[in-house]
Amino acid sequence: MMPQIANKPNESIIRVPFETPRLAEIAYKVLGVDQEPRRNFVKKTLSLENDVLVVHFQSDQVKSLRTAITSFFECLLLCQDTINQFGDSKKEKLIPESNDNAGTHSSSDSP
Amino acid sequence: MVCALGIEGSANKIGIGIIRDGKVLANVRRTYITPPGEGFLPKETAKHHREAILGLVESSLKEAQLKSSDLDVICYTKGPGMAPPLLVGAIVARTLSLLWNIPLLGVNHCIGHIEMGRLITGAQNPTVLYVSGGNTQVIAYSNKRYRIFGETIDIAVGNCLDRFARIIKLSNDPSPGYNIEQLAKSSNRYIKLPYVVKGMDVSFSGILSYIEDLAEPGKRQNKRKKPQEEEVNNYSQADLCYSLQETIFAMLVEITERAMAHCGSNEVLIVGGVGCNERLQEMMRIMCEERGGKLFATDERYCIDNGLMIAHAGAEMFRSGTRMPFEESYVTQRFRTDEVLVSWRDD
């Protein structure tokens, strides 16, 4: 159960643009799984607008709001770094991967 | 054939492991080490893990000589542990799962240790002593669950050791427990300490407070106490380390033996970071031999938290048909060992 937020909460809306709608959806799914810690009394709502991830924070206290936003950005940056390092769009493929291999489990090693 | 990548970062170690059908392909790890006298805090530990984790993933894939398409499942530690470090592992695991379109599994940290210990040592159905900085449990398998027969009722045995190392300002490199072990070897002078076994359970907080007073008599002066002559107290740090080990390890041996007797077991497996301790292994081996049983233990590659144990436990889960919806890929600081259905064992 989400904690009750006062009638006039402190609010913040953050819009994060991504390169493609797919990447925005990945970030939306990755970051949407976790609930805010209950005792922080923060409400976080994620939504998608094409290639933009929209995050709405509501909180009773400014300090809780700041903590929640800081934590969110840490998670967001980690997610983005992961996408940058291991995503398909990387030109120089240290770990080569093509769309044809997506979902398959081929292996050239003999058992 | 299941090829699994595991991510472990529930405490101050961040590790990535890759395993395929019981064969170790990669096992890389980094430890966050704090100055002497300090423990690691969740926020700083998570920062360290964020900085290290992507490099470790890349080097593990290189070491295993695999492409992402060779992986069948990505596993991460769902819990128990510290929330901010756990979250680092979970976020990277989720992102890789979606990027590479590979199934995702959340693994219980304790079961990771048990399954890794079983794989490496070949123990079939041992009584398990799981001892680390965050956990102290005596576990036996029964009816699709790893049952907790006994455990600490306050702090873990490794926590007790680590905090004592802080009190006497031992180095945290490579680990405070290791440094206590080395110092204990240079003494054989035993100091009587509280021995707190409660049936199948144990308690360590009283021992920690008692030995803290021995280590720093002047600190925390009891104002009610009438000023007495200062006790003759010539204990060295080595004496304290030796005595602490003898006392708490004897307690662990006792509860393990009691569990063996209850279950009619003939094998003991020690897992977890404190399982590296050679004195604990020696004491446990003596007890096992006296009972006509056998002791299994692993070295620090597998005793200490690592990504490989998560990969292996996850591979076992995956092979037996376990699947996890993406919406359930959260982390939880408390995740009891006996909450997990052990679908991969038939005995």
TrEMBL record, chain A:
Coiled coil: none annotated. GO terms for biological process: tRNA processing; tRNA threonylcarbamoyladenosine metabolic process. Pfam families: Pcc1. InterPro entries: CTAG/Pcc1. Keywords: Cytoplasm, Nucleus, tRNA processing. Residues 98-111 have a biased composition (Polar residues). Gene3D superfamilies: Alpha-D-phosphohexomutase, C-terminal domain. Component of the EKC/KEOPS complex that is required for the formation of a threonylcarbamoyl group on adenosine at position 37 (t(6)A37) in tRNAs that read codons beginning with adenine. The complex is probably involved in the transfer of the threonylcarbamoyl moiety of threonylcarbamoyl-AMP (TC-AMP) to the N6 group of A37. LAGE3 functions as a dimerization module for the complex. This is L antigen family member 3. The gene is Tcs6.
